[in-house]
Amino acid sequence: LQRQKREWIIPPVNIPENEDYTHKDYIINVLQDEPQHRKVLYSIHGNGVDQDPLNVFIVNPYTGFIKVTDTLDREKIAMYNVIQYFEIMVFTMFILISFLFSLQGLQKTQTGKSWRRTPVVRMTATDDDDPATDHTKIKYSIVSQSPPEPQIFSMNETTGMISVIKPYLDREQQSTYTLIVKGTDMDGKENGNTGTGTVHITVLDVNDHLPKLEKDEYSGSVDENTENVEVMRIKALDEDLEFSDNWMAEYDIVSGNEGGYFSFTTDTETNEGILMLNKALDYEVIQNLELSVAVRNKVVIHSRAAASFSSGTKTYPLKIHVKNQPEGPRFIPKVKAVSISEETKKVKLKSVITKYLAVNSDTGMTAERVRYAKAFDPDNWLSIDENTAEIKLNKLPDRESKFLVNGTYYAKVMVMTNDLPAKSATGTIALQVEDSNDHCPVLTSTSQVLCTESTAVFVTAEDEDADPNGPPFEFEIIPEGTKGTWIVEPLNDTTAILRTHDNLWPGSYEVAVEVKDQQGLSCPDKQVVKIDVCTCNEQKTCEATRKTTGAGLGFAAMGLLILGFLMLLLKVYVIIFKKAQLQYYSNSILNSPMDRPFDTKEHLIAYHTEGQGEDKVPLLLPEILKLSVTILRCVFLTQEIPLLSAPLEIVPGRFYFGKEEWDFMSKPDTEPEALVFNFEGRESPVGSVGCCSFIEGDDDLEFLNDLGPKFKTLAEICTSKESK
C-alpha cells in the first residue's frame, strides 16, 4: 500500500463577528475527492486551535467538519489561519470576521445667540473593516432631537459635523438639547451596518438681557450729621444666568451727587445695590436731594442683543430727604478773627475786644441757657464772661511771642448747655496782631458751560487774606439779577455747587452770588456767574451752534486788515530802497575815475582819538574779516581776506565790489590781448612817483607780481627805486 498526500487551498471564509455559532454543527465542511471506501482522519493546526487562543475551532476527525466553540470578536483577532491535515490532503483556509461599529455618547456646549451654520461638534465613527472597501465608508444622520421643536441642528452626512441651522438658541427658554445620531457603513445603503450615539448639547449663557430695577422710582431719608451708614437697598432683576458676570449688577449715580455724599456697592450674594452715605449732611443747608441712578452688568451687552435695546441708558429717580435732628449750640464762624495792635496806646487791658456768642443749630438764633468758658489759652491772654461771652485781654499783645503762629494767637472757647446731659461746642478765637481782613473773596471764574441734561455747575472763590480771614467761604444766591431758580450746595472750603431743578433750554443764564469769608466779609460789588447752557454730544462737550446772522467785520478786524496792508507797503518800500542803494554803490565803483588816486582828504576819516583806542566795537571780528587798504601816492592797492558767510551790511561812504567787478580786476586774462594804458604820458595829479621812496625794506611788494599783466607795469614803477 502506497500512501498519497494532497493539499487543497480553500478560499477565505467570512464569518460575522459577535454571533453565536456554538449551536451549529459546523461552519466549514471540507470534502475530499478520494473514494469513500478509504478511511481518512482529519486534524487541524494553527490560530484558535493549538495556538492562542486555544480550542476556538475543533474538527471532527472522521467527517472533517470544523466547529466554532466561542463568539468571535474581530477587534481581538481579525483573521485565523487554520491548517487541516488528513491522511491524503492538506489544505489552508482563512477565516475573516466582519465589523459592526457603534458611536459613543458625547457632551458638548454651545453659546447662546449663535449665528446660522455655526459648527457645534464633529462626530467620528470607526470601522475596522478593510479601508479599501465600502465597509468603512460611513454616512451620518440625526435620528432625533430632544426637545423636537424647533429643529435647531443639522448633520453633514459625509463629515459628521453638527451645526446650528436656525439662530433660535436661547438659554433662558431651553438650556440643553439631546441628539441621537446614526452612522451607516456601505456608504449608507440599507444593507449596511449601523451604529448610534448620543450627543448632549448645553447652551452657554451670554449677556443678552439688560438688568432693570424692581421699581421705577425710589425714595429714602437720612439723618443730618451722620456719615458712613447704609441708607437703603435696591434690587436689580436680570434673566441671565445667576451669579455670572452676565447677571451681576453694578449701580451708578448719574447725577445729583456732585457733592460726593453718596456711593453704591453691590451685594454679591443678593445682587442688591447698597446706597451708602459717605459725608454728613446739614439740614440747615440741604433738606432734599434728587439722585439719578443707572444699573448695568459687569460685562457689556451681547452685540446681537444690543440692537433690540435703545441706545440710551435708563435712569431711575431716587429722592433723599434729610431729617433734622436736635442739635446743641455751635459757634458761627468756627474761627473768629480779632485784629489788635501791639502798641500800648491803642490797647487797653480789661476792655472788651469782642463777643463770641454761640447760636442754636436748629433755629439759627443766639443760644439760650448756656455757659461759656475757656477751653485752651496757652499764654493766658484772654478772659471770657460766663454769661455774655464777652472776651477781654489779660495781657498786652506781643508780636514776638513764641505762642504766635504766623502772627496769630489762637485760643479756644467752649459753650455748654444747662441741660442734662449737657451739649457742648467749641470755637476758636484768632487774635491777629497787626494784620486785618482787608480782602474779600472773589470768584476765580465767572463763566461756566452746562449741558442741557445736567443740573449743576461748580464755582470757586479765593481770598488773599490768611486764616482766619480766608476760607472756608459761605456762598449765597442773590435773587436780584439771577435768571431761573438755583440753590447752593457746599462742596469744600473754597468751592460750592450751583444747582437748578428747572429744565433749562439752551441759552445764557446769569446767577448772582455773594461769597463771604470766615468773618462774614464779602465784596461790595455783586458777583455774577454767566452760565451758557447748550446741547452736548456723547463726550459731554458743548456742540457749537451756528448763528444765521449776516456776516460782517468789526472794527478790530478792519484795523487788522489795514495794519497788514500798511506792513505790506512798508516791506515793498524797504525792498525798493535797498535795491536802489545797492545800485547806487555799484555805479559809484564802476563810474569812479581810475587814472588817479583817490583824494585822501575826502576819504580819510578823522577820529581824533589817537592814544585812546576805538570808541566803537566792529560788527565783525578782525580775525575773521580783515579788509586792509594801503594808499600810496602812486597806486591804490587792495588785499582780499576770506569773508564770513553772513551778508555784510552796506555802510554809506564806503566802496564795495560786486563779484563780477572783483573777478574782472583780480583774475588773470584768459586770452592774450593788447593792453591799453590811456594814462601814459599824463602828468600825475599828485606829483612825482618818488613817493615810493618811503617804503622800508620790510614792506614786501612781491605780491604785485601775482596780480597779472595788468598791474605788472604799475609794480615796476613802484619798485623801480629798489630795482636800481
From TrEMBL:
Domain of life of the native organism: Eukaryota
PROSITE patterns with a match to the protein in the record: CADHERIN_1 (PS00232), CADHERIN_2 (PS50268)
Function, as annotated: A component of desmosome cell-cell junctions which are required for positive regulation of cellular adhesion. Involved in the interaction of plaque proteins and intermediate filaments mediating cell-cell adhesion.
CDD domains: Cadherin_repeat
Protein's organism: Lepisosteus oculatus (Spotted gar)
PANTHER family for the chain: DESMOGLEIN FAMILY MEMBER, DESMOGLEIN-2
Compartment list: Cell junction, Desmosome; Cell membrane
Alphabetically ordered keywords of this record: Calcium, Cell adhesion, Cell junction, Cell membrane, Glycoprotein, Membrane, Metal-binding, Repeat, Transmembrane, Transmembrane helix
Identification of the protein by name: Cadherin domain-containing protein
Record-annotated membrane-spanning stretches: 82-103, 551-576
Molecular-function annotations in GO: calcium ion binding
